[in-house]
Write a structure and sequence with these properties.
Length: about 850
Amino acid sequence: MSSDSDPSKPKIAAQIENARIEQEMEQSYIDYAMSVIAGRALPDVRDGLKPVHRRILYAMHTAGISSGSSHRKSSSIVGETMGDYHPHGDSAIYDTLTRMAQDFSMRYPLVDGQGNFGSVDGDPAAAMRYTEARMASIAEELLADIDKDTVDFQSNYDDRTTEPTVLPAAFPNLLVNGSSGIAVGMSTNIPPHNLGEVIDATVELIHEPDSTVEDLIDTRDGQGNGSDGPITGPDFPTGANIVGKNAVYKAYTTGRGRIRVRAKFDVSDDRIVIDELPYQENKARLIKRIADDVNDGSLEGIRDIRDESDRDGIRVVIELKRNADPQLVKNQLLSSHLESTFGVINLALVGGEPRILDLKQTLTAYLDHRKEVVRRRSEYDLGEAEDRAHILEGRLTALEHVDEVVDLIRGAEDRDAAKAVLRGTYDFSEAQVDHIVSMQLGSLTSMETDAIEAEYEEVQARIARLEEILADESELLGVIEEELLAIKAEYGDDRRTGFVADDGEVTREDLVPEEDVVVVVTEDDYVKQMPLSWFRAQRRGGKGIIGSELKESDRVASVFVANTHDYLLCFTDQGQVYKLKTYQLPRPETRYTKGSALVNYLDLDRGEGIQAVVNCDALEVDSDDEKVDERYLTMVTRNGRVKRTNVDRFQNILSTGIRAITLEGDDELADVEVTDGRHDLIVATAGGMSIRFDESEVRAMGRSARGVGGIRLEDGDRVAGIAAVDEERHDWTLTVTENGYGKRTAIADYRRQSRNGKGLIDIKTDDRNGPVCTIETVGSGDHVVVMTEGGQIIRTPVDGVSIIGRNTKGVRVMDIDDGDIVGSVTVVPAAVADENRSDEADGTDAEDEDEGEDVTADTDGTE
């Protein structure tokens, strides 16, 4: 009969269980993940150690490799650990041993290494056969009292011996030394802390169990606001600075946060010296990255970089070029090299399960563990003390009846008989009679009796104290506090990591040097910026230099001067206004490049062009000027309408722009000026007319308003520009015509009239001069930048332009080629001109037209 037909044997099919593969895979993966999480990758909240760290320290403990012993070969320690506790390969064990010995990795190293254990440059440790190690004294505090049944033990991997499931940990090692690890589906990254601060926080939690996280941390700002808890923040072994406290607060209250860590450095005029690096930063790699950025041109202003570090600390010297801006180089380094982010994930095993913990939960879990350790130790010590008291009681009884005891022992046939007769006579226990029959004759002296009585009293006092500790939790907590403070006194030190104010992330603006630039916009809406220093000041009448190569049929529409860090309000001819930073505009390699399309920076409609630009700095009210409490944007249209709007109406400008003025028919915005409500305005026309009136005649109105009449135009005439008169800063008007002629005229020559009149003749606009291009108010020391539609540009001091009357032709300001005309004029204030001064080049003086007869057209008008 075959086995398949034998009814006494189970059929194979009956032993097979059906299971869904997805369920089996899911459960198997969960089992694997939990094995990695609990058995390898995550620290225990109680002692702050992963299994491999715990096993290395326990192997050193059992081998007697303490802080007081001689150093032992690392290969021997690795072998002991691998053979008895951690069968996962020697390289993993040695890497862990190495890190525990590195003072740049561990805030308080747990291993005292001798030999090459690596460096902050990323150099690897020497082979384990060359290095030696022993436990650091602070590591012994983690193992203290482990032989007093303070923690549970489990069988090792092959059941030959046992190992502790956790160490007693006399201090909160998880926070003190931190931890990092990657498990399956989760990771942990806990920063190290100052031992004294963590112990002080633990002690505070002992006294005030209801303390909040806010009570345990120092949240004070520079003005002393906030709580002054004991924990300031992470304290990295490499020092450096933490930027701001908000991220630290978030990490402590939620268990997660991103802390910015900045190198410590000193900035001088010619060098930057780095003496502390962010935690876990590789110094050699950092220096190489900086050098690579310098070589490829992305990091400017650095002449040389040297590593002058030694055993006393880090010192990296960055030599700057002679003309480099130290603050700009510093910002460039901060943006990509001298700051790193430490992502806090306070994940640890609590009861064998991974949990994200806040600061209080972490310390509470440690305190619960420590209470269990001290309780079990006290119970163990109590049992030992009671056993010793029991022995001492038997000895004291025997000494009281020493003669009878001696006689009974001498009369017994053997040791067992002596024990039996002593038990029957004095009711001794087995342990007591064992001790009595083993006593030497020398212990029967009166002096020995006194010593035994003294020891018995001491043991009784110890028993009473231990019983008190076990009966009263406050006494137990008092023991924990006392031991913590003793460890603080022994190993505590000053903080290494400081704090600096959070001045925000280093932005692109921080990487752009502040300088004055000339911005050019063409009719086809191409734009670029060029340093003002590229344009030397020339005497009036010269041809200037090429300021832009234009594509065929394109012409220069406007030119203005601004600082790279200025915010600009860009007004279009269609009455829209946009906002952007000057540095956002493209800068070509040379003056000749045409630039980039303006639509890349502003959302312009087809056919819409930039007509006027206002620097936002001019909108700020000077607090020292008590007469001015508001600023206005005063606009004028080609058809002569004027409108004044408070700058507050332009605070929130959308990326698509907002309406600045409503235009009628074919009217266009001609010019914009910043005013303060206290001065006069001068409006000039292309036909050479001008009108001066008080700004207050134009009431302030909203953005969508059309404005009121400013000047009454002759047929075919149009407005060329508007200028604000500030007689404290401005002495003259400067009028420039399309053919390159211009003149200065005293402001007093322009009689104040009512708005909406025909005005007075400002300049003759015959065939030589051509129409007026613009009018500006200027003072001594100002420069004027004139650019033609063909791309020629000249910068010249206004002091070189003749002062003559209104009804005159003026003098040549710029020698313009046939077929070209002036496209735009802008004034460089004296202060900016001084900062960008260069030697003046000779220009060609044109024929000067002196004063002519002043012709007035004094028709005053009203709206």
